[in-house]
Design a protein that fits this description.
Oligomer: single chain
Bound molecules: 2-acetamido-2-deoxy-beta-D-glucopyranose
Membrane topology: Multi-pass membrane protein
GO molecular function: chondroitin-glucuronate 5-epimerase activity
Subcellular location: Membrane
Order of helices and strands: HHHHHHHHH
Largest sheet: none
Number of strands: 0
Helix content: 55-70%
Keywords: Glycoprotein, Isomerase, Membrane, Signal, Transmembrane, Transmembrane helix
GO cellular component, one term: membrane
């Protein structure tokens, strides 16, 4: 598939750029560690509205984590459309980058990692072949992994990496799945995922 070649070329270029700049491994997806101070300043000034919304979401998650965390029981997790867990996790991870003093938020984020990696897969039982819910979880875990790498202990690093890598391998076995519904989204998450894990 042409798409696979395009991805390989992009990854190659990206790899060269990373080695060339010799920057820290993570974050490397949307910003690097050098950008974080600026992002934190912007969160207090020009981008306060966005930061406020992230903070509000984080406050909700801190109040009652169990309402947001993926259930560790796969039957429960898979019993309904489950993309909301990943969507919330992504927002929380960004908030944790912007406000590193909020240790409770970081603790909830660690619980998200832990719950996601404890599940055997991220599918919905009623539609096991549907990759879209998997993609939502995968984007979130891969992005959060990139954003919060320095806070993860070795155990969670390894498990998050392995689980994301396995999910993405399962996903790419059948390239025809890239056709049809949501294909732009699938290609985008594939890229996010590859870029996030590439440095390993
Ligand atoms: C999962 O789906 C299958 C068939 O689609 C059904 O037989 C089974 O009871 C479901 N499992 C759960 C835990 O809902
Ligand atoms: C990958 O696929 C295998 C078999 O097709 C399945 O047993 C496994 O749970 C899947 N892993 C993930 C992480 O989805």
């Amino acid at each position: 598939m042409i798409f696979n070649h395009v991805v390989k070329v992009i990854l190659l270029l990206y790899g060269i750029q990373i080695t060339h700049e010799k920057q820290a491994d993570h974050p490397n997806l949307y910003f690097s560690s050098r950008d974080i101070n600026r992002l934190r300043q912007q969160a207090q000034t020009t981008h306060r509205d966005i930061f406020f919304r992230l903070k509000e979401a984080a406050e909700e998650m801190k109040k009652k984590p169990s309402r947001f965390l993926p259930p560790r029981d796969w039957n429960k997790f898979a019993s309904r459309w489950n993309e909301d867990h990943g969507n919330n996790f992504g927002a929380l991870a960004m908030y944790c980058v912007l406000n590193e003093k909020d240790l409770l938020a970081r603790d909830v984020a660690m619980q998200f990692f832990d719950a996601f990696v404890s599940l055997p897969n991220w599918r919905v039982n009623a539609s096991m072949v549907d990759d879209v819910p998997v993609a939502h979880s995968l984007v979130a875990v891969a992005t959060a992994y990139d954003f919060m790498y320095e806070y993860l202990d070795d155990n969670l690093r390894t498990k998050s990496f392995k689980r994301s890598w396995m999910s993405q391998r399962n996903f790419t076995k059948d390239p025809s799945r890239f056709l049809g519904e949501h294909n732009t989204f699938k290609i985008t998450w594939q890229l996010i995922m590859s870029l996030s894990l590439l440095v390993h």
